[in-house]
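Hi, here's the filled form for the chain we discussed.

Project: internal
Contact: R.S.
Residues: 183
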Amino acid sequence: MLKSYKVLRIIKTFWMGTLFFFSMIACAEQTRILKPPFEMPFSLDKGDEVAEFEIRIVEKQTYTFGLGFHFNRKDPNDSWRVLRLVGTSTKNSHTGEYVDLGEPLKLRLQIKSIGEDGLSFDFDKNESKIGNYAADGKSFDKKITNILLAPGTYKVRLTNLMAAPAMQGTPITIHLRRAYLGK
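And the returned structure, exactly as it came back:
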């Protein structure tokens, strides 16, 4: 028969192993490198929210960094509510400026190359005129920027510089996709 201290040691070893295993999984998730296309949640209702992640680009392309504002497609009132938040895609024919930008936003997007190739790449953009550019039946999208990226690994940091309390309760995602540049 096992003595009580041996049983306690077995239980302690089991729990320590379990804790180690799950902590390794959590660390692996935090350092996961994303490949486009992808989307991830982001909040805009309070100021100073930050999303930091790494991306791997395998093909030289122009990519769109944007925000998706999701709505309940079974509820037409919800889609109208979200449309009022994001504004319309209508532009002034004389100036090319968006007529209705919706709820004001101010974001900072920073992209830095972290590849071993020795190439240096820094992109830093503050943007407040973010227009609605697409809808797909479940969300309205606002484009932060289109950017040409060469193959490599990049560190991305998106910071919300201004609180938008009207966005509370609206599911919002950051996305990176191949840019549509027309035919």
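Let me know if anything looks off before we file it.
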